[in-house]
Specification:
Protein name: Putative oxidoreductase
CATH class: Alpha Beta
Largest sheet: 8 strands, mixed
Strand order of the largest sheet: 3-2-1-4-5-6-7-8
EC number: 1.-.-.-
Helix content: 25-40%
Keywords: Oxidoreductase
InterPro entries: NAD(P)-bd_dom_sf, SDR_fam
Number of domains: 1
Number of strands: 8
CATH superfamily: NAD(P)-binding Rossmann-like Domain
Structural class: alpha/beta
CATH topology: Rossmann fold
Organism: Mycolicibacterium vanbaalenii (Mycobacterium vanbaalenii)
Low-confidence stretches: 217-221
């Protein structure tokens, strides 16, 4: 199906969906669509006031959980709170992220983009995974970016960009890491046969994620965006299809079907050759476990 829309989302009644960064942009559209189809949605956000305002704009059952992905302590506390409330989680959507930020570090000393976009979601997934294991139809959906193809290899010799920092390079490394993580997680989940790991990317969509781009770039983007970008509602469709389409297979990657995957309806797309490298996937997994001190039950 190449014209998949929110009308194709199956009934989600009885399902619990945890979505990071869902108070704005793509995450907001994802949460709104799932709640409208009957899911019990939990939007996990750093600013709970903004989260409550976002939840008030959605129909259905929507709760807010405080979560700062740049802090391992916050991730641990959020996971404990969610596990105390839910015996099972059907969907974990790793959506939140930062892009092209000035050089900075997380509370635990990781480079901000790698630490938030990859390590934060790695740790959260590891701490919540026992609530998804052996749940029929459960999925971990991680949102990457078409930009993962632009950054070259993982900077193993300077993983935290301490010697030389490049905003876009750090961002694209974090998005490549999202895919390496997804594919390795799927390989570990596959023998159990119930929970799957899937990835998605939104194409190009004007959201708050671009707020750290240089002002001239933001201005130029605003002028040309109508030519190649699509709305946040459209940008959320690959994530929604990855999360709900009954035909989804573990390890698939969803993105727009238009030119250069910039806009369009969600379909299965290919990621970079590098993202499928088994040695890279395993190496990143090992390093991520060491850095976060989170061990997965698979």
């Amino acid at each position: 199906m190449t014209d998949w829309t929110t009308s194709d989302i199956p009934d989600q009644t009885g399902r619990t969906a945890v979505i990071t960064g869902a108070n704005t942009g793509l995450g907001f559209e994802t949460a709104k669509a799932l709640a409208a189809r009957g899911a019990h949605v939990v939007i996990a956000v750093r600013n709970t006031d903004k989260g409550q305002k976002a939840a008030a704009q959605m129909s259905g059952t929507v709760d807010v959980q405080e979560l700062d992905l740049s802090s391992l302590a916050s991730i641990s506390a959020a996971a404990d709170a969610l596990k105390s409330r839910f015996d099972k989680i059907d969907l974990l959507i790793n959506n939140a992220g930062v892009m092209t930020t000035p050089k900075g570090t997380t509370a635990d000393g990781f480079e901000l983009q790698f630490g938030t976009n990859h390590l934060g979601h790695f740790a959260l997934t590891g701490r919540l995974l026992d609530r998804l294991l052996d749940v029929p139809g459960a999925r971990v959906v991680t949102v990457s970016s078409n930009g993962h193809k632009m950054g070259g290899a993982i900077h193993w010799d300077d993983l935290q960009w301490e010697r030389s920092y490049n905003r876009m390079g750090a961002y694209t490394q974090s998005k490549l890491a999202n895919l390496l993580f997804t594919y390795e997680l799927e390989r570990r989940l596959a023998p159990r046969g119930k929970t799957v790991a899937v990835a998605a990317h939104p194409g190009t969509s004007p959201t708050e994620l671009a707020r750290n781009l240089p002002k001239p770039v933001q201005g130029a983007f605003g002028v040309v965006a109508p030519l190649f970008a699509h709305s946040p509602a459209m940008g959320a469709l690959p994530t929604l299809r990855a999360a709900t389409d009954p035909g989804v297979l573990g390890g698939q990657y969803y993105g727009p079907d238009g030119i250069a995957q910039q806009r369009g309806n969600p379909v299965v797309v290919a990621s970079s050759a590098q993202s499928y490298d088994l040695d890279l996937q395993r190496r990143l997994w090992t390093v991520s476990e060491e850095l976060t001190k989170v061990a997965f039950p698979v």
